[in-house]
Amino acid sequence: AAQEGFDAEEIAGAIEEAGHGPLPRLAVVGRPNVGKSTLVNRIIGRREAVVQDKPGVTRDRVTYEAEWAGRRFKVVDTGGWEQDVLGLDASVAAQAEYAIEAADAVVFVVDATVGATDTDEAVVKLLRRAGKPVVLCANKVDGQSGEADAAALWSLGLGEPHPISALHGRGTGDMLDAVLAALPEAPAQTFGAAGVGGPRRIALIGRPNVGKSSLLNKVANEERVVVNELAGTTRDPVDELIELGGVTWKFIDTAGIRRRVHLQEGADYYASLRTAAAVEKAEVAVILIDSSESISVQDQRIITMAVDAGRAMVIAFNKWDTLDEERRYYLEREIETELGQIAWAPRVNVSARTGRHMEKLVPAIETALAGWETRIPTGRLNAFLGEIVAAHPHPVRGGKQPRILFGTQAGTKPPRFVLFASGFLEAGYRRFIERRLREEFGFEGTPIHLSVRVRE
Length: 456
Ligand code: GDP
Ligand code: GDP
Hints:
Associates with the 50S ribosomal subunit. Belongs to the TRAFAC class TrmE-Era-EngA-EngB-Septin-like GTPase superfamily. EngA (Der) GTPase family. InterPro entries: AAA+_ATPase (IPR003593), G_ENGA (IPR031166), GTP-bd (IPR006073), GTPase_Der (IPR016484), KH_dom-like (IPR032859), KH_dom-like_a/b (IPR015946), P-loop_NTPase (IPR027417), Small_GTP-bd (IPR005225). Residues 24-187, 200-373 form the EngA-type G domain. GTP 1 binds at residues 30-37, 77-81, 139-142. By secondary structure, the chain is of the alpha/beta class. The protein is 35% helix and 19% strand. The protein contains 14 helices and 15 strands. The chain has a 6-stranded mixed beta sheet with strand order 2-3-1-4-5-6, sandwiched between helices. It has a 6-stranded mixed beta sheet with strand order 8-9-7-10-11-12, with helices on both faces. The protein has a 3-stranded mixed beta sheet with strand order 13-14-15, with helices on both faces. Helix 3 (88-101) runs parallel beside helix 4.
């Protein structure tokens, strides 16, 4: 039935679109200069200049949303790094490994004009071990004459090479069709409801030296283990099951946290990729901040990553044992000015060194997960929206007053709402609605998605 000017199909479509669950993830891997970034740009179809960044400028963005033939998915790009102290093969392998692990299918890019190299063979080994679906791309086949080079890549044993030109678009449509065929509808690790689907998954993230490894050791009640091995070699077990507060949790990528290899060149990008991979695999992110230092741009980036990924979130201010009166005063000011956007995240002030407030971590995580999974019944939501609209109508603009007509929660993990309105709702009003939703229903520890449909 038509509802205030929206037809049923339109409403159903809007709810479907707004309520999509976690998107399946595609990793694009390969050696440097084979054209990964060019291909990612083509897949996401834009605008975000990911190719030829200025040298020395850190690229921290590693996942993008894309759509092909009406299906949406995420792309994990590994093109943004420079060769580092590990040497070429180990670097490529380490990067690819994280991306593959966080992905549901992989596009493996080879430069057809060069042919398969030893480094390519190393990646093939990783791909075999991971057992994920692979689409092999023979890139830089800009014309008919390159097709033979592409065919030579059958030798990699990964099935049919798809000849493409990432630069000019040749063959990329057929290749993307193959990608969609390989990609599951939803990520392999779909989020389980509390109690089912195995242990809840926690990513412990934060910039180097905030105390991730110390905190992990503290909660795991173990001696500090320093494993001095190079990234990209054996990394088993990657995740660890740890019992806290009588519940078993899965801590993501603890091997990476414990290893603590501090790379120089390209380390930032590498760390970003690792963080993004951990966040992808997790349900809740515990973000560590070093309270003895100023909140940095890097802290902000990590927070943004978790928010963009739509994960439940807890902020842990570590090294609380080091604070004096003065630092504490300034920290509170910084939190107000720098972290106002995530004032909804539960906060714990901890010390991995002394064990201070460790017992508060689990309740905070549980609170965040509860907020993340909250579902508001449509009746209650609309009663609430009705009250808001009556008490705080949208300001009149150009003689018109846009009104929220009705709304529904289209999904959870994180909560996603779609509002149907008679006109465009200004950003300030949308923020006001979000604030009021939080006041009314809690949503502690979770980002909220709010989309608005306007009646034509
Ligand atoms: P990445 O290091 O794997 O991310 O590689 P880039 O995407 O940065 O590409 C490396 C170089 O190869 C750039 O100069 C691109 O313009 C070029 N390139 C990428 N794809 C193609 C292609 O399909 N054909 C040709 N001729 N050049 C390409
Ligand atoms: P990661 O790089 O995030 O894993 O950080 P680490 O756990 O290796 O810690 C970096 C440094 O901070 C080490 O010297 C730790 O001993 C120290 N550290 C970690 N947590 C605390 C804490 O709560 N208080 C103090 N004073 N130092 C800490």
